[in-house]
């Protein structure tokens, strides 16, 4: 909810014997590095939910040019909306960094399968609405990285 809530949750986990014994002590030897950042849901996006259990997620990280949403926000939003309006994929959320590498935007999409996502991507590349919106937004783009995420059974997003 906020930084005070984050602090209280971290404190509770540090004192949770079950968390420490069953998760951290098992996971810690497997971790080579950790990257933390704090991001918020952008004001124009509501956190979505997948229409059903299962499926896969695509986590797309955009490194935008310095200047923040005042510079690139409108064009970025138009590109996201163009993708939403086609129905090729379902938006779960758009997040902007508060701490960490600034001018980073993460977008989480849901799809029924990796093949459905691939077909949607190919369709989007040929859709004039998407091409026009993306063409306008890429002038603010430094880099993009996409990751396919398959939720574990313990994930609330399964």
Topology of this protein?
Blueprint: H1 3-14, H2 17-27, E1 38-41, E2 56-64, H3 69-86, E3 90-99, E4 104-111, H4 114-125, H5 128-137, E5 141-149
Antiparallel strand pairs: 1-3, 2-4, 2-5, 3-4
Helix pairs in contact: 3-5
GO cellular component, one term: mitochondrion
GO biological process, one term: mitophagy
InterPro entries: Dimeric_a/b-barrel, NIPSNAP, NipSnap_domain
Description:
The protein has a five-stranded antiparallel sheet with strand order 1-3-4-2-5. The mean pLDDT is 93. The protein has two domains: 1-34, no CATH class; 37-149, Alpha-Beta Plaits (2-Layer Sandwich). It has helices spanning 3-14, 17-27, 69-86, 114-125, 128-137, and strands at residues 38-41, 56-64, 90-99, 104-111, 141-149. The relative contact order is 0.19. Helix 3 (69-86) packs antiparallel against helix 5. The chain is of the alpha+beta class and 158 residues long. The two termini are 22 Å apart. The chain is globular and about 55 Å long. Residues 1-46, 57-156 form the NIPSNAP domain. One of its GO terms (cellular component) is mitochondrion. This is NPS3A protein. InterPro entries: Dimeric_a/b-barrel, NIPSNAP, NipSnap_domain. Belongs to the NipSnap family.
